[in-house]
Amino acid sequence: MTAHAELAHYRKTPPSNPSAPTSTSAPNGPSVPATRIDRPRPGDGHLLWRLARDSGTLDLNSAYSYLLWCRDFAGTSAVARDASGRAVGFASGYLRPESPGTLLVWQIAVDESVRGLGIAGALLDGLSARVAAEHGLSSLETTIAPGNLASERLFASYAARHGATLTREVLFAPEEFPDRGYAPEVLHRIGPLRF
Q1: Which helix (H) or strand (E) holds 133?
Q2: Dihedral sign from CA coordinates of 157, 51, 23, 103
Q3: pLDDT in tens for each of the 195 residues of the chain?
Q4: Using CA atoms, how far apart are residues 101 and 175, in angstroms rounded to an integer?
């Protein structure tokens, strides 16, 4: 249950209105027309489950959990939709109960057909701007398994765009998991954030 990026290239600047349609593009690459970042709806749960399943890197939760997430945590999650309204990416997150100014990004995935076009960066920018406007936001956290360079680049790029410091520390060691074979989960904390 970690946030893993599915892109190698990310937006350099956040959209001016995170809920409005935006075009994203990779350096020297094609653009994705009218990609809209908005709240997931319960009906999106099965689509988010498929995106997570097809990512090849995310821990896949039950289909039921994605339905619940889209109902109960829609305010702290985001979905990217193409011009037809099809979900092509998502970021799920929540505000930490003991630190309500901290958004923990649980999972982030982008459909293989549009990877490398900046959608993951747009999801993070749009989601964090919305959470900041609605709840206040001082920091963003995620966990990344060692060796997931795409996720590391995504969150480092986010920190740089927002002029924030990125720190890392092991949050969960391998022996804390019930099964063998888990790598440590490294907490990436970005802050302070100002919107």
Answers
A1: helix 119-135
A2: negative
A3: 444 433 322 333 333 344 444 444 333 334 544 789 999 999 999 999 999 999 988 889 999 999 999 999 999 999 999 999 999 999 999 999 999 999 999 999 999 999 999 999 999 999 999 999 999 999 999 999 898 999 999 999 999 999 999 999 999 999 998 888 888 999 999 999 999
A4: 30
